[in-house]
Amino acid sequence: KMMLTLLHIPPLPINSPSSPPPRRRRCPPPMAAFASAPQQSKPLVLGCGAVSVDYLATVASFPNPDDKIRSLALKVEGGGNAGNALTGAARLGLSPRIISKASNDALGKSILKELQDDGVDTSYMTVADGGNSPFTYIIVDNQTKTRTCIHTPGYPPMKPEELTKENLFAALHGVEMVYFDVRLHETALLVAEEASQRKIPILVDAEKKREGLDDLLNFASYVVCSAKFPQAWTGASSTPVALVHMLLRLPNLKFVIVTRGEKGCLMLERSMTDASETEETDVEDLLESLEQKVDLSSSMAKCVASKSNLRISADGVGSMSGRLIMGTAEDIPSEELIDTTGAGDAFIGAVLYGKHTTS
């Protein structure tokens, strides 16, 4: 039996005078960081990946099959992993460029304008005659503060030959870092190969297993993972063990970060010098020791780091030289939470900015 859920959404077309102007969603990194971003310096970062228009319908609770419910609110905003992350980077003070594709329909024009208004250079995007631009229906559960995404890809899809060598070289000129969300993977691989030849650092968003991800990870200098990815990719028994596995499996990798929602994040960083003569420290014991240093009475986000240049080991995996860093998340009252849409993308935007300020 086919089950059908109907969600009634008030009619708010994207260009309707009664609808709020489309805005790329607010970024979770501390707003003080946006306010204090240095405006005199505009380092270049290039991103390659997804852009879209998102229709976010907030509901009291997620519907059951065959339910017919009404939305509490509807927002029409720019989206897509790369679009979100680069918008965050632009607001923090970087000068992002993007390689992606849209159509010359109303949604595509909205995507381009919004990115441009936020300071993202769209000169290297492909705009197709005909077809449709990407868009996503997002159901925001007001009860659990979670979201469910139903994505419709753009058509026709981007082909690698649509990125000419001339545009590729121009897009990479002066760039200090390249970022991939692993969409448009064939085009992304061309960009990664050229960036690698130019010794430009590469950051990969490992949200989940995707076609082309393994090829891009081989070029990665830095990886940011979703909570479930490290174990899914390595088959390791725990997240800390999986992080060690990733650094051993990917010799070009300088650090890997895994985001953990309300628990914050973990970062395993490779040392520049070898600590093979140092006594080994089990990575799970090391994480436990960091957790014990956290002041649970404080609601503010904190960063706790191990000593640098430890010999960190994982049973059945091996050992590497580096340090483990744990970042906690701010304890935000539930009534202040909106939803988690774009949180990981905003985190990556902040990492792109952070790499610039610490390089």
TrEMBL record:
Pfam families: PfkB. Signal peptide: none annotated. InterPro entries: Carboh/pur_kinase_PfkB_CS, Ketohexokinase-related, PfkB_dom, Ribo/fructo_kinase, Ribokinase-like. Keywords: Kinase, Transferase. GO terms for molecular function: kinase activity. CDD domains: ribokinase_group_B. SUPFAM superfamilies: Ribokinase-like. Residues 49-271 form the Carbohydrate kinase PfkB domain. Transmembrane segments: none annotated. Belongs to the carbohydrate kinase PfkB family. This is Carbohydrate kinase PfkB domain-containing protein.
